[in-house]
Amino acid sequence: MPIELLPEEVIGRIAAGEAIERPASAAKELIENAIDAGASSVHVEVEAGGRRTLRVTDDGTGIHVSEIELAFKRHATSKLTSADDLRDISTLGFRGEALASIAAVSRATVVTRHRDDEMGVSLNVRGGVVEQRRLVGAPAGTVVAIENLFFNTPARLAFLKSEATEKRHIQWVVMRYAMAYPNIAFALKQDGRERFRSSGGGVLADVLANAFGLKAFRCMMALDGIEERRPGRPAIGITGYVSQPTLSRASRDRIILFVNGRAIQDSTLSHAITQAYDGLLKTGAFPFAVLLISMPPDFVDVNVHPTKAEVRFRDSQLVFVAVQRAVRETLLKSSDAAPAVDLWTSTGFGEEYISYQHPQPPWRQRRAADLFDDEGMDHIPEAAEAPMRPRTLPVLRVVGQVGASYIIAEGPAGLYLIDQNAAHERVLYHQLIDESANGGVPSQALPESQTALLAPDDAQLLCEVSELFTQLNFEIEVFGPNSFLIRRAPRILSSMLASDVLPRMLASLRGSEKTAECAAEALAAVAAVRNGQMLQEEEMQSLIAQLERCPSPFASPSGRKTLIHLSREDLADEFKRL
Ligand code: ADP
Ligand code: MG
């Protein structure tokens, strides 16, 4: 084929593919435009995970009637005039590409009125082509509605994740911007139901309590406006919140970073944060962190990534050190000041800073004190309950326990050091799998049904995987927005509070394949005896007896080592007796 310039329409679709990879990226661009337009309220409405409709309404400056077509042209922007400006960007947008890209792959309608204009204008664009334009009466501000996103790019459509996944992504886009801009009131409706709201009252704590759920938020500490100043270097400001070591997650997805009001991804900075928790969190556990980093705009290049999700710092080492120091100092201060117990009664942040999305219902106040009352309740079933499977380990004799975490045992082949938590997880996992296959996991009706108020994304995930919980013989009902009533729970949870168990199980299910096995693994992890817990001799015997008959006794279901074996030869070698 001869070389030819592509038609404008094809160029448009190709370019759209870079910046608009999924409905959440379109939502992000529209929200950024609203923020750049000085909006004080931004409403996002979504249907079918953004594939059917995505509508963003703001009360910002609006667009002049005379400029409306221009706004949809590629490289048309009011935010930059020269290449020099690129070095000093203080707006979220600057490429003048988003509206053009979105309109190229959807049916877009914009209704807008500029504050200084009397009449507003409505414009319909389909696949990049203007179909209709008329003057209309409208409130000052802008509504951009997108329908049938990717209707003309079937490949992109085919690669979209499930509707639930897209919904979750959109929800996080909205929640992240709400965190970066607590002065702006955000609201998100998905399929007619309100999923998130922020008051616009200017208090980050408010937003976090709504986004993470009150319980998680109460385990977070404010970084108090740390400024890193070095002679001859730009000042770096860091504010935000990080979790106490009592709160963690199985993935890094609660480490949220902003640079100059822009949500960014940066694995180096995220590493700086997790490193600050070194020794405080178990391997595989990650903190919550919301960090708002500010620095002179010319100190950071935002023009390096199609979706503007990554940035380049002029001195990344300086930023790394500042972030790590800010987090570490906050953690140190908290360990001097606050005992790690009784998170519910310590107010942490004054109550006046916490706005509840729904007023705290009485049952919650009543039960709050019980929430951390599950100490020592983990229960290791009697050896007799273990199904008689073939042996996979020799008969072991318990010698003792070290550090309330490891069981020392002896067998014909030498010495065994057993991680009680990992081993119990392995045992419980097989027990659950066996029980599921043979009549079901034994469960018990809770003496008083418990209510769990979940973070919105946890609530959504619970709805998606409710079947897995039912299979484990949980009985859970929807009780209100993001709250659930638990009537029955598996017996291995003993008297642990089921409402406490749900978020932990959901956290480990989130990144998993969401099969029955994954659910059993999540339940086993929650129910297993913890490290740091003294065990009676009989309990250790019972645990070892069950481990001896587990199909794969050497690792926990999540892949952690359950035991270290020192053979006679190893010991002789160590003592130079060979
Ligand atoms: P960019 O944001 O990079 O400038 P966009 O394609 O997103 O590019 O928007 C093009 C222009 O349209 C913006 O520069 C702005 O002037 C105008 N615009 C877009 N959305 C809005 C909005 N919600 N309110 C006011 N102006 C807007
Ligand atoms: Mg923009």
Summarize, please.
The protein has helices at residues 8-19, 23-36, 68-71, 98-104, 154-159, 163-180, 204-212, 214-217, 267-276, 316-337, 362-368, 420-437, 456-464, 466-471, 498-510, 516-527, 537-547, 568-574; strands at 41-47, 53-58, 107-113, 120-126, 129-136, 141-147, 185-190, 193-197, 220-228, 236-243, 255-259, 262-264, 289-294, 300-301, 312-313, 397-402, 406-411, 414-419, 443-453, 475-480, 483-490, 563-567. The chain has 578 residues and is an alpha+beta fold.
What this model shows, in words?
The longest helix is centred in the middle third of the chain and has 22 residues, at 316-337. Residues 336-376 and 378-387 have low confidence and may be disordered. A hairpin with a 2-residue loop joins β17 (406-411) and β18 (414-419). The protein has 18 helices and 22 strands. α12 crosses α17. It is an alpha+beta fold and 578 residues long. Magnesium ion (MG) is lined by residues 29, 32-33, 93, 98.
Mean pLDDT: 84
**Biggest β-sheet: strands ordered side by side in the sheet:** 5-4-3-6-2-1-7-8
Residue share in helices?
25-40%
Beta-strand residue fraction: 15-25%
Number of beta-strand segments: 22
Structural class, by secondary structure, is alpha+beta
Number of helices: 18
Bulk shape: elongated
Bound molecules: adenosine-5'-diphosphate, magnesium ion
Report the uncertain regions: 336-376, 378-387
The profile of the biggest β sheet is: 8 strands, mixed
Terminal CA distance? 76 Å
Using only C-alpha atoms, the radius of gyration works out to 28 Å
